[in-house]
Inverse folding.
């Protein structure tokens, strides 16, 4: 005796290659536990691909304890910049925020810049954890 409610929506605009998809599902099971998960991703690619993924799930079991899991992941990569003399620049930026059930916050930021003509790799890693 479980109830599953799901909604899927996707929008594709081909001129600028924008893909927006949203998934939302609600699961109510027999033991009165409620699982609500929402996924939203945005992909924009016009020589610059931006991927924004958003995941949020809320689980409320029968003993009324609340588990909230929040994941947000942003990937911005500007690829294949050709300047001169086969000099390609790859700049990637990764940022993830994770808030777990014990309200500990993990923020990690990775930024790397790769210039292949000079073989220079600059990377920066930063992590903050409160618990």
């Amino acid at each position: 005796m479980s109830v599953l409610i799901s909604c899927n929506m996707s929008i594709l605009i081909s001129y600028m290659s924008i893909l927006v998809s949203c998934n939302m599902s609600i699961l109510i099971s027999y033991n009165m536990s409620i699982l609500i998960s929402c996924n939203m991703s945005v992909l924009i690619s016009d020589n610059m691909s931006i991927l924004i993924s958003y995941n949020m799930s809320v689980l409320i079991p029968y003993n009324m304890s609340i588990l909230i899991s929040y994941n947000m992941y942003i990937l911005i990569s500007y690829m294949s910049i050709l300047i001169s003399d086969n000099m390609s620049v790859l700049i990637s930026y990764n940022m993830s925020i994770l808030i777990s059930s014990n309200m500990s916050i993990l923020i990690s930021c990775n930024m790397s810049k790769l210039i292949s003509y000079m073989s220079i790799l600059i990377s920066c890693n930063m992590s903050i954890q409160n618990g």
